[in-house]
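Deliverable D5.2: sample structural annotation.
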Amino acid sequence: MDDKVAIIMGSVSDKDTMKKSAEVLDELGISYEMKVLSAHRSPDLLFEYVTQIEEKGFKVIIAGAGGAAHLAGVIAAKTLLPVIGVPIETKALGGLDSLLSMVQMPGGIPVATVGIGNAKNAGLMAAHILAIENSKIRERLKDYRKAMVHEIKDIKIQ
């Protein structure tokens, strides 16, 4: 079965941030599905989706939300799949509210959380989790890192 990642965002306005997860997954050849499902505005739809997610072959979930940012925690409470939270930058508090909502999950319901707006790292973390059992993804990650080294080596400062 193909390893897949679910990318869920609380609002369509989060798409510009969350597409960075999709871009890195595309680069690494990892299948994904993107959905807008709100923990507050559409909880029944969210629960329905999450309760069926494992049988659809998904292995990791990336959840991005701003403000109160309960999405990642609500998802984590409904599945045993790893959940990576992406705090979305907000106008009111610059994303600090989102970050604190995710990292302050109560003991027993973990959410791995990346930096504010850092959906790229969420995509990479999802790939690292999949690479534990998928040697093809592991090799692609090695190549990805080699490419980063070459980018740094090729920088010419005058």
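Annotation notes: The chain is about 45% helix and 15% strand. The two ends are 50 Å apart (CA to CA).
The annotation will be released with the project's public dataset once the embargo ends.
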